[in-house]
Design a protein that fits this description.
It contains 2 helices and 10 strands. With 105 residues, the chain is mainly β. It has one domain (2-103): conserved putative lor/sdh protein from methanococcus maripaludis s2 fold, CATH 2.40.420.20. The relative contact order is 0.26.
């Protein structure tokens, strides 16, 4: 299910438990290393204009796209110069399916 967020171009992608199981949804927390944030590189997607994003879990099984800025990649981890705060849950598996739901594909 898709629920537009008023005043933005973003939508909330709402999954049922069955849908989450079908797409084999997995998540991880944003962590911090010094003054930098990190996420698994599998959480990141790059849109057609080159912007980088992650899907944050704002409630159980409810995801909203969040802009990030990647500083570098190291051994499957993306080190961010900008992104959601440490502790934020992001999708790491099922990201392509979340993109598909949000974009209507």
């Amino acid at each position: 299910m898709l629920e537009p967020i008023d005043g933005t171009e973003l939508s909330r992608v709402i999954l049922t438990e069955d849908a989450a199981h079908r797409i084999r949804l997995e998540t991880a927390s944003v962590t911090s290393v010094g003054d930098r944030l990190t996420v698994p590189d599998s959480a990141i997607w790059i849109d057609e204009s080159g912007e980088t994003w992650v899907y944050t879990e704002v409630e159980p099984l409810v995801f909203v796209r969040a802009a990030i800025r990647v500083d570098r990649y190291e051994d499957g981890i993306a080190v961010l110069s900008e992104g959601p705060p440490a502790g934020t849950i992001v999708a790491t598996v099922g990201v392509a399916e979340l993109i598909g739901v949000e974009s209507g594909l």
